[in-house]
Design goal:
Blueprint: E1 3-5, E2 8-10, H1 12-15, E3 19-21, E4 24-31, E5 35-37, E6 39-41, E7 50-52, E8 54-55, E9 58-59, E10 61-66, E11 69-72, E12 83-84, E13 89-91, E14 97-100, E15 111-124, E16 127-136, H2 148-154, H3 158-168, E17 179-180, H4 189-208
Parallel strand pairs: 13-16, 14-16
Antiparallel strand pairs: 1-2, 3-4, 4-11, 4-15, 5-10, 6-7, 8-9, 11-14, 12-13, 15-16, 15-17
């Protein structure tokens, strides 16, 4: 799936702004809730289209449906050359992931304004892979959710379900469970916005050339 503007193909990773005002950010839906095809932005291909991941010549699917809308924050990047001192893990070389927990199913390729309310520090095969928990700005419960505690009140048990889903989804393929930093705790809104800002700054360095593109990512 390619994005276009004015008849010209563009990169959703590079051309869609991160910040959406009112403490919200934009996210791009790669995997709508209750689907299993492992779709993701191809950061190493020109215009970074959304496409299904392939492993050993086969299209990849999760072993079961994902129960939330899943996607990425544009103009963010988890730098594999930077090790987080508290977590002792470097970035996974991808944009930051978003788990949107609202009621409505989103469309693949849709761009949505969301309220970030927390973040899980997933460690996947030794790499840091942040999972931002967010609520769509137009969800009926959005106005009630401004931080992690509100999510527990209005979406009881949901964060734990997200953690367990991402912890365990590789087990059916014979791989070990993923781990989480900060004692499996979902960090608060302030911490989350700091992670978003930090990964945005890493992206800006990559895009501007201040950080060498040693990973050979597509910057167009």
């Amino acid at each position: 799936m390619f994005f276009s503007q004015g008849g010209k193909e563009i990169s959703c990773w590079h051309e869609i702004p991160l910040y959406a005002g009112d403490g919200c950010v934009h996210y791009i839906c790669e995997i709508p809730k209750e689907t299993s095809a492992k779709m993701e932005v191809a950061t190493d291909e020109p215009c970074t289209p959304i496409k299904q991941d392939v492993k050993k010549g086969k299209l990849r699917f999760y072993p079961y449906n994902i129960n939330w809308n899943y996607g990425l924050l544009p103009q963010t990047w988890e730098d594999p050359g930077v090790t987080d001192p508290k977590l002792n893990a470097a970035g996974d070389n991808d944009p930051v992931d978003v788990v949107e927990i609202g009621a409505a199913a989103h469309k693949r390729g849709g761009v949505y304004k969301v309220k970030p309310v927390g973040v899980l520090a997933m460690i996947d095969d030794g790499e840091l892979d942040w999972k931002v928990i967010a609520v769509s700005a137009d969800d009926p419960k959005a106005a009630l959710c401004n931080d992690v505690e509100d999510v527990e009140k209005h979406f009881p048990g949901e964060i734990q379900k997200v953690l367990e889903w991402f912890r365990d989804y590789k087990i059916p393929d014979g791989k070990p469970a993923n781990k989480f930093g900060y004692d499996n705790k979902c960090m608060n809104k302030e911490f989350t916005m700091h992670v978003i800002q930090e990964t945005h700054e890493a992206y800006v360095k990559l895009k501007s050339g201040a950080r060498a593109n040693t990973e050979e990512l597509s910057l167009v």
